[in-house]
């Protein structure tokens, strides 16, 4: 990765799109490794995810943990859904960890009909075995592809492996305006001032996105500063 040198950068009225020079040490710049609270802990001390705990026993199933920590409940919450909406909106402004992809698209780890793979798989695949009591997903396999590893200036993976944040770490509206010069340019209407819109005030179309569309309609995937804008309507 190559960071911009800020020694000669004068104070600007506006932030940089990629977050560079917003901090003297370039902290928070897009596509840089995230800071750690605890040191990394890999099985091989390099990059292989842990499979056993300190006691030597296998770690519990991730899906079992998530189902236990976030159980389905019909009890009314003390807060409105705006808490979730605002939390997700803020999250999409400051963090996004891109996953490894193939040259022709996403990596598939599970077999047909949600079955566990039986042969060799992509080395970045770590599919999750679904418990027998699973009710939200069909089959026995949940797709899981690991995130992209940070590299040094020569393009080599860091040792130990570090994770990359593709967004700026600042609360700067990057989910609207983008975190790279290339995306920021795509979002502009050509005048350099206004953002593109379609059919009034709708977001422009993203022809390269892979959101789920209704068949037989003129629906389209939206383009914004963060590709997860198509996850749910509250992000539009």
TrEMBL record:
What broad class describes the main subcellular location of this protein?
secreted
* Pfam families for this protein: An_peroxidase
- The region called Disordered is annotated at 42-64
Q: Which InterPro entries match?
A: Haem_peroxidase_animal, Haem_peroxidase_sf, Haem_peroxidase_sf_animal
Q: Name one GO cellular component term.
A: extracellular region
Q: Which UniProt keywords apply?
A: Glycoprotein, Secreted
As recorded in UniProt, coiled-coil segments are none
Has keyword Glycoprotein?
A: yes
Subcellular location, in the record's words? Answer: Secreted
Which GO terms of the molecular function aspect are on file?
heme binding; peroxidase activity
Q: Which GO terms describe its biological process?
A: response to oxidative stress
Query: Its domain of life?
Result: Eukaryota
- Tell me the protein's name: Uncharacterized protein
């Amino acid at each position: 990765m190559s960071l911009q040198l800020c020694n000669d950068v004068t104070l600007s009225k506006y932030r940089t799109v990629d977050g560079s020079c917003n901090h003297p040490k370039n902290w928070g710049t897009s596509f840089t490794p995230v800071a750690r609270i605890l040191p990394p802990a890999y099985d091989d001390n390099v990059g292989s995810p842990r499979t056993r705990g300190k006691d030597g026993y296998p770690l519990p199933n991730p899906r079992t943990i998530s189902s236990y920590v976030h159980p389905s409940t019909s009890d009314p919450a003390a807060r409105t859904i705006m808490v979730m909406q605002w939390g997700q909106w803020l999250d999409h402004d400051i963090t996004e960890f891109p996953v490894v992809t193939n040259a022709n698209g996403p990596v598939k780890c599970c077999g047909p009909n949600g079955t566990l793979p039986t042969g060799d798989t992509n080395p970045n695949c770590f599919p999750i075995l679904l418990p027998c009591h699973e009710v939200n997903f069909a089959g026995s396999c949940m797709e899981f592809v690991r995130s992209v590893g940070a590299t040094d200036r020569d393009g080599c993976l860091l040792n130990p492996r570090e994770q990359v944040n593709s967004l700026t770490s600042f609360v700067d509206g990057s989910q609207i305006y983008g975190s790279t010069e290339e995306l920021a340019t795509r979002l502009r209407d050509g005048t350099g001032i206004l953002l593109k819109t379609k059919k009034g005030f709708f977001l422009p179309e993203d022809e390269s996105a892979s959101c789920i569309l209704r068949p037989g309609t003129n629906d389209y995937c939206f383009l914004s500063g963060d590709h997860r804008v198509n996850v749910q309507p509250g992000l539009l």
